[in-house]
Write a structure and sequence with these properties.
The complex is a heterodimer of chains A (191) and B (235).
Chain A (H helix, E strand, L loop, with lengths): L12 H14 L1 H31 L5 H28 L1 H9 L4 H37 L6 H22 L1 H9 L11
Helix pairs in contact in A: 1-5, 2-3, 2-5, 2-6, 3-6, 3-7, 5-6, 5-7
Chain B lengths: L3 E12 L6 E12 L3 E5 L6 H8 L7 E6 L2 E2 L5 H10 L1 E4 L11 H11 L4 H14 L15 H12 L6 E5 L7 H18 L2 E5 L3 H5 L3 E6 L2 E7 L7
Parallel strand pairs in B: 3-8, 3-9, 6-7, 7-8
Antiparallel strand pairs in B: 1-2, 1-4, 4-5, 9-10
Classes of the chains: A mainly alpha (191), B alpha/beta (235).
Amino acid sequence: MSQFEFKNIDPPFWVAWHQAKASIRVRFLRMAITTIGIALGIAFFCSMQTLSFAEATVKTGGGSQRLWLVSTSLVMCLVGVTNSMLMSVGERYREIGTIKCLGASDGFVVKVFFLEALLLGVIGAAIGSFLGSFLMAAVVARMGMPIPIGTVFATFGVGVAIGSGLTVLSAIAPAIQAARMPAAAALRVEI
Amino acid sequence: MSEVVVRTMDVAKRYGEGEAQVIALNGVSCEIFKGEYLSIMGPSGSGKSTFFNMIGGLDKPSDGSVFVNSVDLAQLTPRELAFLRCHTIGYIFQTFNLITVRTALENVTLPMLFAGKTPDEAEERGMELLNLVGLGHRYHHRPSELSGGQQQRVAIARSLANSPAIILADEPTGNLDLKTGQEIIDLLRMLNMERGVTIISATHDHKMLDVSDRIFHIRDGKLADVEVREVLTTS
């Protein structure tokens, strides 16, 4: 009993996965708003893509201004997600402290936050990409500028990838902050 | 009751630098024995919470050392500390701190999953512990569907999950009414007597003090007084 055998076991992946899902479920409204934010950003991105493909079939000419607009919207989207996740870390100090008291490693906490971000990112980006690529393609097709279906699917794929990637990127700062949260935070009492 | 579970040697904790430095603990040495029921008392600002955090592996001392089960906490990496918290220490909080989105059973099994148990093993032991605290029939309820006293019972079951060497209880009755508080105290005392669980609690509650084997009084960052009580045998 005197000497300790330190085996560094991390719980199986599904434990973190369940925790992430549960966290999203309990904050459904806020998470939904964040997801809508992601979806709108990606929808804008995809619709701009679609529009430029459509115009390319009619006339030639690039749109560097458009590129600017799109990147700005994506950065805004990223900042928004980072902000809302940072706030949620601040609110969850007790929960994070408690699971650390129960034996969660910093790595586990980081994993939960990234999984949450990934889940939101994939859902938001999928919705946004769908609207931006398929819906926009339908609209421009009615305007007489049909786009090959392969291109539409490609735009959708790129949108989902970029959206999920950006959301995970924006989770870096919140996840680090959560990992640094001391376990003693669990003992804090609201005054 | 001779085996030492926790030993502190000249533990000091200082916060801040220079003029603004605050000395929260100023050389506390003590031994806590296996199977004892210990209460830590002290006015707010006395260093009680700091001391409590030290023996719980939640904070590291500026000077001196803390040994839990002969392991020097200062030598541990964060990961090893997490491991120690998982296996050796059970925590009970004033605010219960159950994971709100998980059922009672999931709350109890979580530390066991951290410890590497399989879900089946964890569930079986989880049910056993919930039965022990008298909540076996409510295993599928969420914390929000349980009363304060019931939540604290689940928290007690959770703290026992990995059969820890010590259980740290921070004002476990602080958020409960008199009657439920008494039930929690009885439960802790029962676990202490029948299962030999070592319980260390920070408290102001006099009912809690009545069942303690020893009481540490902390004042101005020092261990001012150790009160030894005769074991009260009620059963």
